[in-house]
Fold each of these.
Amino acid sequence: MNDTSQEFASPANRGKLKGQNRIRLLGIAFTAFFAAIAVQLGQLTLLHHAAAVNPELAAHEPRQPRPDIVDRNGVVMATDISVSSLYADPRKILDVDEAVESLTANIPDLDAKSLREKLKQPGRAFVWLKRQVGPEQRDAIYNLGIPGVGFVEERKRVYPEGRLGAHTVGYVDVDTKGIAGVEKFLDDQGALYTASLNEPGTHTSAPAELAMDTRVQQAVTDEVSKAIIKFKAKSGGGIILNVETGEIIALASLPDYNPNAEDKHLTSDQQNKMTSGVYELGSVIKAVTFAMALDSGTASLASHFATGAPLQIGKFRIHDLHPHASQSLEEVFTNSSNIGTAKMALAVGLDNHMEFLQRVGLLEKLVTEVPESARPLLPRHWSKLASATAAFGHGFAVQPLQGLSVIADLINGGMAVPPTFLKRSKEEAQALAHRIIKPETSDTMRYLFRANVEKGTGEKADVLGYRVGGKTGTAEKVVHGHYSKDKSLASFIGAFPMDHPKYAILVMLDEPQAIPGTYGFSTAGWNAVPTASNIIARVAPILGIEPQFSPEDLDKLAKQAKAQKKEG
Amino acid sequence: MIKLANAFLVVNVLIAAFFLYSLEHATRALERNIAKTEKSITDERERIKLLNAEWASLTRPDRIQKMAEEQLGLKTIQAQQFVPLADIGAKVPQTPPVKLEAQNADAIGKMLETLQ
């Protein structure tokens, strides 16, 4: 500094001074430049090394995979596997005829004519030739080395359990977009749930856990399909529901379909009848009327009803199949008396009846994860007659699942728990539940259900040791606007073990026929009830129900053992 | 003095360049390794998925049921066949039906052999 100020005075040094100033300026500029780079470098490497995400890279990350679907024990029900799909770039194909010839030789199910048309589109840069080609065919085509033909890795959804539980799981289209069952739920309403399964940063996702138990599902499917063959029914179905958590442990609707099949042209019979169809469940609905009358206090176990003469409402008469002069409340239930039940509903009153149906949720569409869901069909005019017939299930059609769910709520202590196809804990269920009837009413309902199996229409449902209770229903089907005498829908709704119900069961058979073993009867007591009994005998051990025997049960067992010894 | 400093800087640059180059080389090798490992993890995951699907398909309850009915002749378990833990002592037979030690061999294996 001193030097420069001294030299400043001499004019001869001016030029030298100018040059030095320039160098200094340059030096400052360089220092500033390198300092800037150093600061930036420090920021990028020391401070931001974790947070720095290139937005362009992020956009090209592979999208999150579709979650697997597993049953409650982790058995895989739907999963993605990687497959190759064959495509072509028609602009690059040199000899169309040769390409067509060698491709059809290796993939026999390719149609030569449509293939030639596809390859002759000069403007196109991409056409699919065949989706999901097997590994051997893929290698063969690779070895042909046709220019302009290549493979893209694609995901394919497979259902290892096949037909088992197909209605619950649903299926996806060729672009792996869910179009039925829980698969559709994962894409639509359940998108939030699907997103919650994703494990960040790993491109993997936890499986969606169903409430279903494949072993129970198999027992239900197997027994119902045997029953359909045995009783020559058109179709049938069965459901097992956990009454405490609302979990649907098994849901079978037969005939079913294979979700792995390429083209599923489902007939209306193959639809999920347990949720997408509405049926008049008949006498099963009487249980709702009983719960209403008991809960409102207009009837009690001590009540008696005059059921000798048909009940006249306007021009309409309500009859009983087996007339009795007077019946107690319990007998009205076990004999399934239409007159008695209609009188109970009328005693409660029109508005209260409507209000009760609203409270148990029978007026609204039941919404679960499975999108195939039907709205209940109700009487158009809520009159005295409509109320009296709805009391025993006429003119009042609901989804079978909804019917079962309501009955389950009536016997589980009176708490309405929305049914679900996904795994749910007891705590989650309690948070969702709300009270619909008093616990005492629920106790009486349990007593009635058990009494009906001990000495009523559901007698054949009893499985010694598992304390089964239930109600049968045989509804005449409506054919051309009239109730048909020979076409009926037989159903049974029950629960076990009745002293502390854990599981509710529904069995439904559409148009069962009388067979030699049923003495000419085609009512539910002869077909749906024994089917339910077979199912309970098979699933109770799987579900962990501890057998308990009453003295009467032990007597029966001793007799059975004796009879077997004689035969043996 | 300046020459010495320059020579020192040149040597430094050479050393730094060599160090940088070898570092970059090593980094590339590591990156290749990571990519390879990630690829094999994905492949392995894919294979696990495939095997899981195959396992689920082979242990389908309907398949097991069919085989059990055809091969084993088992019946549905009855409620009265369950025995509480307290009563189990009374149900043990005096002489075991299959004497494992006496036969001095794999008794269950023999049963399987006779089945075949």
Amino acid sequence: MASLVKKLLTAFAVAVPVMMSIAPAAHADGERFVFVSHAPDTDSWWNVIKNALKNAAKETGTTVEYRNPPTGDIADMARIIEQSAATNPDGIITTIADFDVLKASIEQAIAKGIPVMTVNSGTADQSKQLGALMHIGQPEYDAGKGAGARAKAAGVTNFVCVNHYITNAASVERCQGYADALGVPLGDHMIDSSQDPTQVYNKVKAYLTAHADTNGILTLGPNSAEPTIKLLRDTGETSKYNFITFDLSADISQGIKDGIVESAIDQQPYLQGYLPVVLLTQYKRYGVMPANNINTGPGFVTKDNIGLVEKLAGEYR
Amino acid sequence: MANSETSVPAARSSDERLRRQSILRSMLSRPELGAVAGAILVFIFFAVTARGTGMFAADGVMNWVTVAGQLTIIATGAALLMIGGEFDLSVGSMIGFAGMMIAIPTVYFGVPIALSVLFAFCGALLIGFLNGVIVVRTRLPSFIVTLASLYILRGMTIALSILFANRTIVSGVKNFADDSFVSWLFAGKAFRGFFIWLAEAGVIGTLPNGQPAVQGIPAVVLWAFAIAAVGHIVLTRTRFGNWIFASGGDANAARNVGVPVARVKITLFMVTAFCATVYATCQVMEFGSAAADRGVLKEFEAIIAAVIGGCLLTGGYGSVIGAFFGALIFGVVQMGILFTGAPNDWFQVFLGLMLLTAVLFNSVIRRRATGER
Amino acid sequence: MTATTNQPSETPIIEVRNLVKHFGAVVALAGVSMKVHAGEVLCLLGDNGAGKSTLIKTLSGVHKPNGGEYFVDGKQVTFQTPRDALDAGIATVYQDLAMVPLMSIARNFFMGREPVRKFGPLKFMNMGFAEDVARQEMRKIGIDVRDPGQAVGTLSGGERQCVAIARAVYFGAKVLILDEPTSALGVAQTSMVLKYVNLVRSRGLGVIFITHNVRHAYAVGNSFTVLNRGRTLGTFSKSEIGIEELQNLMAGDKELQSLSDELGGMV
């Protein structure tokens, strides 16, 4: 028994210096920023943003810590913002995944005198209301509407919106914008696909079988797009649908080249990671800040411009 | 046998010696000892690794206290139920469902907030009751029964919120609840005056606008203390508490001496549902919204806290005080790792390792103390 | 084979006549009659499947009989629950199911009958009282409990049985039904339990002692009932039957039975 205690204490003796060697790294000479996202650990899309943060930190000589609630619970995210504020960083970059939930935490950070920028989810209005310096992102509803307009032009009348993150209000906005552009009520055109590829595959399959008159598909990201692409390849219905997806991945690029996917809405996430770090650094050092919000999207990636995008997908695009 | 009445003086003197020993022994054999020791270890660890990061400044402290407090609420329910020999895996889903039971009637049907909260509590108690009845009647493992409830409740939360509200996040509860008694009860901040005084005295920091860095103790923390205290007293000092130990330790033996085991277990399922609803109500009142994904995986956090606190997975042994310290350990570790600035990709690895260490440390301490074989 | 009792004049504490119990098509008790008087140890002997445990469970109110009569102190009774039997003074100590090993002695002692103290509308368990009583009652039977707060799991098997018996006695049992209390015990532990059974008897309680072991039975019993296939093979007082005969009755019958089976029912 005594030896086990000794072993545990030894383990700690080893662990402490390891943790300590990490801790000072977080407090290097340069400014320290914290980036708080709402994405659960399983969401690979955020890898591009993590890479952008790394690049931006290296180029500006600052430190950026990436934080997220492991299960994607926004109430937990509020605690992480509070925690970040308690460490007195030089700036906080956060998404506004749920305005009501995050409001108090973000306002508290701002009241503490910490510069806050908002990115990705949320609207410019919400950002302004919170007192953030600026918002960098893609307006979700407008992006959905843009996609809907393209679909309408291509003759879509009946659609399915494959939502893999139904608990996020922004995801519903995307479907809503698309539906409004088509002039079709959203109703049960939106399906909760979950994040599991097999489930997405089967749920979309079931929907398309049951609704044979469907001619438009909107997926909200690689999590819902990739299994859907696979499904269409398997059934051979590669050109039956006008298929638009949010975001990019290697599979989606291939889908665009093969003509299965008409276009991908690119909100250019790299900029959502890179720009706030660079801008906050300049703000901190020289007190300069652009006067307007920045829309990083929607940009549409089609067969015509896929070449460059494809090379960098999953890393910087 | 005849000596039983004869050797009174000898017995008395030996009695005194034994009593002294028993105080020391009972102190050492308490199930929460390991968790207390683990908590001290964790604090020492972060005192070293997170020094100067703001973790021990007023707002930093309030941050992990709040997280630990939230967890204490559900860990207390989980601990009582585990001591009673059952599990509830539907706690996390219950949090999401209870939140919706408050938000949807309030925002979409104009029900006064107090009634919505009452409705949520009644609904949750009913679900807890059903969980309990199914477990008791079918004699299936509660693990399986409540795993089913986990899916059913989460699914209903999504389905019903889409049905009634056409969205999975119902916001705007604050418009109906601000300044109400319910909001004060579940999301108020206590001792504001005290914190203003602390700030003026320079004990805690102030914000640039003159407000103290921490405005008060959140209601959720007070709820945590209250629920843990009541749970502890009920468990150790009442007849019902004795029945909880008996039902979890050996249900047949308990039944043989007339303990109403079924009633005890059903009640405990209702207690966990009640605790989950307190958690949910505090959250909805604080954030003003309910969402279908609230509380995901919280059931495991509650069980982990109870186990760190010395509850046996097999039932019949454990304590609420232990679960309280278990929740403290979990909350401190969860937030403390962020304070140390450890890379995010490794967060869950660190979390798991620290919890494992705390559990091992606590079980070693407990074995040494109780002389368990 | 005449069934007799040793104290025919007194009213027995418990008497059953022609008790019948079936579970579906299986007949577990096919008309069992027996009685126990105050200050008497009745040993119930029989092999596995003889119907011993069904009989105990029927006596203690767990099962309801399908036929026959049940008298307590001469009055006919029907028990709906084990609680009813307990309230009538019939306490059953089950072999493994008497104690919760993880709970303290005091908590076990008062399990199901916790002493409470009132503070206004609130009721609290009186732990001080529970511990004092547990300690005293254990000392009365010669077991020095170091700490009534210690877990029952730390006691020996014999001590556990004694705690269970002491508990039943403390709560005013008139009849104790002991289900194989010695079957899992060593020699010293067995003698501790047997001594205690004798002490309880001498205080005027009736005891029904269920066992496989004829020698244990003969050491404490006043009369002996042998069960086989749901029927009694007879009841004998200690003066009527020697230990050898009793042994033969249990064992011999079985041999006869198997012989009879072998010879196709010719014997």
